[in-house]
Amino acid sequence: MVIFNNTTSSSSNFLLTAFPGLELAHVWISIPVCCLYAIALLGNSTILFVIIVERSLHKPMYYFLAMLSAVDLCLTISTLPTVLGVLWFHAREISLKACLIQMFFVHGFSFLESSVLVAMAFDRFMAICNPLKYAIVFTDMIILLIGLVICIRQVILIFPMILALTRVSFHGGQELSHPFCYHPDMIKYTYSNPWISNFLGMFLQLYLTGTDLLFILFSYVLILRTVLSIVAPKKQQKALSTCVCHICAVTVFYVPMISLSFTHRLFSSTPKVVCSILANVYLFLPPVLNPVIYSLKTKTIRQAMLQLLHFKGSQGPSVRSHRGPWG
Questions:
Q1: What range(s) does the G-protein coupled receptors family 1 profile domain occupy (predicted)?
Q2: What whole-number distance in Å separates Cα of residue 119 and Cα of residue 207?
Q3: Splitting the chain (327 residues) into consecutive groups of 10 residues, what average pLDDT does each group show?
């Protein structure tokens, strides 16, 4: 089955759009886009590799960070073929089945990231508010169980929605607003009343991300209350500093996602250029910034990366000396 091509669209396919009105500059636009993809792939892969290899990072906080990096990595890979296909080869056409599959992964990994951020908020809450119980609660088995529950939750809630969409008839040949398949964008082109599917999609998003965000906010209210009760200013600063990275990750994830979703669902007359900009911010901001934030702000991650680079750098000369001058 051909996933996408650049021929004339058939009645069962959609047309992807990267940057409306800038089609002639797609090759040049692809340069910064490829750089962002490279940063996202390399950054998240590096953090994931460092946490796996470095035994000193085998702790609950870093396990959750590894989950976040893995989700960002998967989210990046799920959109890469269509985005680069549109920019490099003008391969705009995508079949309905391929579009639904991509939509499942895009929304699935987005909701998965939301759940991981909740788990990280709970980790910070326990570390600051209940430090004596932290080691008892966050055992390796409990962390594994949390990861499994997060994955099962996404599949149970999202798979039925995708399955229902396979029974819906769409107006073929319609131009989507993004270079990837996004539910609020697709649902506008159904033969049936799109309001019902749109409402269900919005309910699902509000239920998943809305409850997640409320839980995160509630966790930080309790954290702030505990921190303010600490007398020593240095201890207050140290406690809050452990939350800075997570707060940044929450901000760069939820702000673009909520903005894009509400733009599609509540402001149907929004220009495609605005939708395109929001889509690219939503697509690139979390996977690109998360590894940068955690690398710069988390001393242990930074030190582990430097140790790994130093180990590889010092290993090279020792290997060559064993081989002799003729290598």
A1: 43-294
A2: 17
A3: 46 83 87 95 94 91 96 96 93 90 92 95 95 93 95 85 78 84 83 66 77 95 92 85 92 91 74 83 93 88 83 57 41
Residues 288-309: b if buried by 16+ CB within 10 A, e if exposed: bbbbebbbeebeebeebbeeee
- pTM of full prediction above 0.85: yes
pLDDT at site 4: 45
Residue 235 corresponds to which amino acid? K
Cβ neighbours, 10 Å, residue 16:
24
Cβ contacts of 201 within 8 Å, gap of 6 or more: 161, 183, 184, 187, 265
Q: Give the largest Cα separation in the chain, rounded.
A: 76
Separation between Cα atoms, residue 169 and residue 167, nearest integer Å: 7
228 residue type, one letter: L
